[in-house]
C-alpha cells in the first residue's frame, strides 16, 4: 500500500494517507473529540429533520382523517385511498431516490426531498377535493420515500463505528417524535375548534420543518464513502477529517480506499447488473425480507387507523384523536430504550424479541375485542396498542432501519436500499388498503389475527436467514458477507 502526499497524488485509489501523520490532515488539526462529536451531532440533526417529516406526515393523517372525511364527504374506500396514496408515492420515491443517490449524491437527494415536502404539504393543506388531496399526498409520498431510503444510508456512511447505532437511530427518534408531534398538534387543534376545516392546519404545520430541512440540507457535507466511489478523494478526505479525530480519519480513509480499489473492475457496472452477482443478490433479498417483516407486523395499521378504530368502539372523535398521544408517546419512549440497547445488544436478538412481543400484543387485542365491550374495551384495546408500539419501536423499527443502512455493499447501497424501501412501502400500501376493509367485512379479530401470524413468520425469517451486522465497520462487514454468501 503506497503512502501519499498532497503533491503528485495521481493513482489515488491505490494509496492512503501517511498513517504516521506526516501528511497534514484536512479539517481540525487538533482533532478535539468534543468538537468532532458536535459536528457529527449537527450533521445527523439536520439530516434527521427528514425523519421528523417522515413521522409527522405519516402520523398526522390518522387524526386529520376524521375531519377530512366529514369535510370532503369520503366513504370508507375513499378514506383508504387518501391514506394510501402517500404510500404509493413513497414506494416509488424510495426506489428512485435510492438509485439517484448513487449517482447524484446523498446530500443532493435530501435537499430535493425537502422541495417535495414543501410542495406536497402546501397542496394537501389547501386541497378542495379528493382528487387534489390525492395528487398532493402522492408528491408528499415521494419526499417521504426519498428520506426513508437516503437519510439512514447517509448517516450510516458519515457515522463512526462506535456511534453508528446511536446516530442512525437518531433518525428513528425523530420519526417517532414526528408522529408524536402530529398527535399533539391534532389534539391541540381539535380542542380549539370543532370546525371541519381544522384538518388544514393539522397538515399545514409540516411546512415549518420542511423549510428547516431545505435550508439545513444545503450545508450538509457529502458522504465520504460516496465521494471516494466517485473519485472525489480530496473532498472525501476533508469530510472525514472534519468528522473524525485525525488518526481515526486516516485509518478509516484507508479502509474505504481498500474496498474501492477491490471493486475497480466493476465500478462502471449498472446497479441492476449487480443482481447477477450471487452474494449481492442474496443480501438484496435479505434486505427486502427485513423491510417486509417491519411492515407486516402491522405498525402502520395501528398508527394510521387507531383513532378511527377506537371511535368505532364508542369513543368520541376528540377522545379518539387524543388517544394518539398515548401511542405516539410510547413510540418515543420505546425508541429511546431501543437506542440504548442497540449499542449493547446484537441486531438479531433484538429483532426476534420485538417480533414475539408484537405477535403477543396483537393476540391480546383479539382477545380484548372478543371478550369486552363498550368503554372498557376501548381503553383496554388502547393499552394493548401501546404495548404493541413498545415492541415495534424499541426492537423492530430500531433494528430494521439500522440493519438496512449496514447490510449492502457500497457500490450498490443506494440502489439496494431503494429496492428494499420500495417493497416496504408497497407492503405498507397493501396493509393500509386492506386493513379497514378487512375490519368492515370480517371484523377486527381477523385483521389483528393476521398480524399475529405475520409477526411469527417474521421471527422465523430473522432466526434462520438474517445475518448479524453489529460490531464491524461497513467495509469489514462487506468483506465478511461477501465471503459468506459468494
UniProtKB/TrEMBL annotation:
Biased composition (Basic and acidic residues): 15-35
Location within or outside the cell: Cell membrane
Ranges for region Disordered: 15-36
Record's bilayer topology term: Multi-pass membrane protein
Annotated Gene Ontology cellular component terms: plasma membrane
Domain of life: Bacteria
Keywords: Membrane, Transmembrane, Transmembrane helix, Transport
Any GO molecular function: transmembrane transporter activity
Spans traversing the lipid bilayer: 43-68, 80-97, 109-128, 134-155, 175-192, 198-220, 279-305, 325-342, 354-373, 379-402, 414-435, 447-466
Domain Major facilitator superfamily (MFS) profile: 43-470
Main location: membrane
Similarity annotation: Belongs to the major facilitator superfamily. Sugar transporter (TC 2.A.1.1) family.
Protein name: Sugar porter family MFS transporter
Species the sequence originates in: Streptomyces reniochalinae
Lineage of origin: Bacteria, Bacillati, Actinomycetota, Actinomycetes, Kitasatosporales
